[in-house]
Design a protein that fits this description.
By secondary structure, the chain is mainly alpha-helical. It contains 17 helices and three strands.
Length: about 400
């Protein structure tokens, strides 16, 4: 890695570029040269950026568990992080831990070290709360709980999406293999005896013709359409919100996406709001955890509504994005404690709904995909075997 160091010497600001393998090596180099950095910026090579995989949720959980156990044993924080670094295999997570260590050695606050190491807003906020309150263990427990729930919900979502995606890929591969390598043999056979192919075989051969003659063109068109949609999605708020809104309206899938997003929002909001984080910060952290732009745009109006004099409950109810039970629970809260209890209950109910909707989706998708796969197999079988059954009559003619 390349480090750009800004430091003060003889009353003047100076800069220096240092190449080191790690933050630990940089710390040793700075100590030898007696440089006290004011600012440290890093730059990784393009190769390193691509080969280093993002740490998994499980690796993150293990890291915070290690820190939690170290704090319970009353070990020095630098020692805890060094031991955690030794037990971490993911390169990106190693760099993040090294950044924290470097920041601590430079006298920065723990919260600022986590921010500079580019951890999520929720994690940084909980570290800040724990550091200021002197109860870092409780904050670490909240972080671990959040990561566990995130891992569980992501697993449910992937399970619901990966099965149909895998079946579709298998069907496409089987279809292409049959139409490209098997059917042409029958076509040449019938052409040699001047016979007519059955409709099932003709339709498959037509698909083969499209793939072989226009396959590249079709693929290019799809890629261009994908790039155009992606560009518009990134540039246009309207497109992002519209596509996000339509994703929530998809049959069966929409309910899974909705509860997946709502669980993320209420989970982050519950812990930050309960920990006495300022309302604006709690909402900002919770909204940033969402992926759905439509829900983000709706929830962004909550703080504006609160500033206009509406209560938090009224502001959430005005959004008109919640199910009837959620609305009822929000209305039932009469005071601060009741509101927090309502949010906790909503969170638990939405978790149950997410699990239930994901299981329902799988129970519907499996027979549907089997039915579609059966139709494809029937089409392929008729396209292959009908010419064989009609071959004797074609020969007699």
């Amino acid at each position: 890695m390349i480090f750009y160091i800004t430091y003060k010497k003889d009353g003047k600001l100076k800069s220096k570029k240092i190449k080191c393998d790690s933050f630990e090596a940089l710390d040793i180099t700075l100590s030898k040269e007696q440089i006290k950095p004011i600012k440290i910026e890093t730059k990784e090579s393009i190769f390193n950026r691509f080969i280093k995989l993002k740490p998994s949720t499980k690796e993150m959980i293990n890291m915070f568990y290690h820190i939690k156990l170290g704090l319970k044993a009353k070990l020095p924080f630098n020692k805890i992080l060094s031991d955690t670094l030794d037990g971490t295999k993911n390169k990106k997570l190693q760099l993040q831990i090294q950044r924290i260590l470097l920041g601590l050695n430079a006298g920065k606050s723990l919260h600022m070290c986590f921010v500079e190491a580019k951890f999520s807003d929720f994690i940084c906020s909980m570290i800040d709360i724990g550091e200021k309150s002197g109860n870092l263990l409780s904050s670490l427990e909240f972080i671990i709980l959040d990561l566990k729930n995130k891992a569980k919900n992501t697993k449910l979502l992937k399970k619901a999406i990966s099965y149909p995606a895998f079946v579709c890929v298998v069907m496409a591969c089987v279809f292409l293999a049959i139409t490209i390598f098997v059917l042409p043999q029958f076509e040449s056979l019938f052409l040699s005896i001047k016979g007519d192919l059955p409709f099932a075989s003709v339709s498959l051969l037509f698909m083969r013709f499209l793939v072989l003659e226009y396959g590249i063109l079709i693929a290019v068109i799809f890629i261009i359409i994908y790039i155009i949609i992606k560009i518009f999605y990134q540039k246009s708020c309207f497109v992002r919100e519209r596509l996000s809104y339509l994703s929530l309206k998809l049959p069966y899938f929409g309910a899974v996406f909705y509860y997946y997003e709502s669980v993320k929002f209420f989970l982050s909001f519950y812990w930050t709001y309960k920990s006495k984080v300022k309302l604006e910060a709690a909402l900002s952290i919770s909204i940033q955890s969402l992926n759905n732009e439509y829900l983000k745009s709706k929830l962004n109006s909550v703080y504006i509504s609160v500033n206009k004099g509406f209560s938090l409950q009224e502001s959430l109810l005005k959004l008109n994005i919640w199910d009837s039970l959620t609305k009822q629970l929000l209305k039932s809260s009469k005071d601060e404690d009741g509101f927090i209890e309502s949010i906790e209950l909503i969170l638990e109910l939405h978790k149950d709904e997410l699990e239930s909707k994901a299981e329902s989706l799988l129970s519907i998708i499996e027979p549907f995909m089997i039915f579609v796969l059966g139709l494809l197999v029937l089409w392929l079988a008729l396209g292959v075997f009908l010419p064989l059954w009609e071959l004797p009559s074609q020969i007699q003619i």
